[in-house]
């Protein structure tokens, strides 16, 4: 009887391993390359240095600040009161800019957000918005092993207020930057909803007030916030809107991972079938030889 021949092929196993490692390295390389690609696109329409916007003067305008405070407090009291009664407040560009300068919730917007005009169709706002730029290794004193140099989006946006999920946000309709530079479509999709009051959703004062609003509308020269009895706020702001840009990277990584797993699985399946076929062929040969 001839010695048994093994049906296992070491070459097939090595090939599967090499191809699987190659796919994995490609995925890691893609994940490492993508932030640099995004940074290169952002650099085309942003600046390396900020151009801070004017902040409405509070000193010398105490009377206006007090009057605005009284109106806002009256509106908040109405919102907390009988839900069957309407509540409404009208805010001009000057009111909004003064509120940003005078009150704590506006602190994060000072020097980066200024309302120029309100039309019946849009809030026209100058911005100097800080973004994360090209990744780099952190220097001494900086947080984490990896950081990034800041970039600044300087321009004028047109948008409208948006209500949903107990929050007042800003939907960006268009964005103009100096020099006529073109803002990438992918960035605009990510930038389409600005959660300027996100940090105050759980605030004990501002949070409940936002949660009871049912309308946020524009009229010539004013932003109108109101609660209409019997109305519920439209749920137009979802997590998917805010994760749209970042989710794109996850989407492509997920697709790559699926391709990798499908390829590796196919190779393993083909290898096993070939091994089984060779085993069956070997057994047939042995049976025939022993007959």
Concise synopsis of the structure shown:
With 291 residues, the protein is α+β, with helices and mostly antiparallel strands. The protein contains 7 helices and 8 strands, in the order ααβαββββαβαββαα. It has a 5-stranded antiparallel β-sheet with strand order 2-3-4-5-6. The chain has a 3-stranded antiparallel β-sheet with strand order 1-8-7.
Fold blueprint:
Blueprint: H1 10-43, H2 62-80, E1 87-91, H3 93-102, E2 113-118, E3 123-137, E4 146-164, E5 167-176, H4 185-190, E6 193-194, H5 206-212, E7 215-219, E8 222-227, H6 239-242, H7 244-290
Antiparallel strand pairs: 1-8, 2-3, 3-4, 4-5, 5-6, 7-8
Helix pairs in contact: 1-7
3D architecture notes:
The chain is of the alpha+beta class and 291 residues long. It folds into two domains: 199 residues, no CATH class; 30 residues. It is 44% helix and 23% strand. The chain has a five-stranded antiparallel sheet. The longest helix is centred in the last third of the chain and has 47 residues.
């Amino acid at each position: 009887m001839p010695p048994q021949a093994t049906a296992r092929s070491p070459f097939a196993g090595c090939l599967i391993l090499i191809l699987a490692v190659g796919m994995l390295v490609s995925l890691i390389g893609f994940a490492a390359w993508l932030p640099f690609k995004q940074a290169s696109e952002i650099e085309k329409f942003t600046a390396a240095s900020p151009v801070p916007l004017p902040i409405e003067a509070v000193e010398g305008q105490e009377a206006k600040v007090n009057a605005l405070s009284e109106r806002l407090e009256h509106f908040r009291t109405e919102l907390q009161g009988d839900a069957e009664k309407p509540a409404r407040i009208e805010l001009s560009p000057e009111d909004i800019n003064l509120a940003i300068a005078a009150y704590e919730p506006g602190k994060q917007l000072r020097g980066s957000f200024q309302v120029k005009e309100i039309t019946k169709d849009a809030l026209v706002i100058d911005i100097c918005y800080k973004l994360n730029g090209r990744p780099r290794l952190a220097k001494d004193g900086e947080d984490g092993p990896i950081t990034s140099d800041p970039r600044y989006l300087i321009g004028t946006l047109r948008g409208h207020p948006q209500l949903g999920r107990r929050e007042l946000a800003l939907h960006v309709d268009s964005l103009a930057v100096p020099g006529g530079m073109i803002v990438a479509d992918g960035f605009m999709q990510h930038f389409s909803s600005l959660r300027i009051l996100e940090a105050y959703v759980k605030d004990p004062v501002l949070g409940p007030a936002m949660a009871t609003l049912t309308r946020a509308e524009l009229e010539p020269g004013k932003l109108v916030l109101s609660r209409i009895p019997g109305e519920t706020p439209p749920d137009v702001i979802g997590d998917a809107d805010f994760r749209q840009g970042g989710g794109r990277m996850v989407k492509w990584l997920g697709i790559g991972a699926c391709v990798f797993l499908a390829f590796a699985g196919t190779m393993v399946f083909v290898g096993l079938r070939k091994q089984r076929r060779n085993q069956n062929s070997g057994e047939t040969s042995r049976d025939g030889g022993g007959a």
